[in-house]
Backbone:
C-alpha cells in the first residue's frame, strides 16, 4: 500500500527567502531515502509563507523509517525556519469509488 504524506509548513516572516531554499536542499535527502517515490512542494498563492511538501512512499513502513531517521541522525534543522511546528497528515490510497 502506497502512502502520501502531506507536511504542512509556515515559514517565519524573516525566513521567506532562505527557508524555501533550505527546504529544497533538505528534500534532496528525502528523495534519496529508501522507499521515497517522489516529493512535490506547493506554495499557497495567497500566502507565500505557507507551503506543503507532498511526499509519496512505497509503504507506511518506509515513511515510518524516514520519520524516525529525521527525528534522529537525519535531523534537518528545518524547524529553525518555521513560524510553528509543521503538521503531518498521511493518506493511504482509497478504494476505487
Residues:
Amino acid at each position: 500500500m502506497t502512502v502520501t504524506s502531506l507536511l504542512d509548513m509556515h515559514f517565519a516572516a524573516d525566513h521567506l527567502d532562505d527557508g524555501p531554499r533550505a527546504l529544497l536542499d533538505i528534500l534532496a535527502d528525502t528523495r534519496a531515502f529508501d522507499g521515497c517515490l517522489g516529493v512535490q512542494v506547493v506554495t499557497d498563492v495567497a500566502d507565500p509563507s505557507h507551503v506543503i511538501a507532498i511526499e509519496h512512499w512505497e509503504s507506511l513502513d518506509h515513511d515510518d523509517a524516514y520519520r524516525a531517521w529525521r527525528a534522529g541522525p537525519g535531523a534537518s534543522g528545518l524547524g529553525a525556519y518555521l513560524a510553528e511546528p509543521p503538521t503531518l497528515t498521511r493518506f493511504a490510497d482509497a478504494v476505487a469509488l
Q: What stands out?
A: The beta strands are 3-10, 36-44, 47-57, 87-92. The chain has a mean pLDDT of 95.
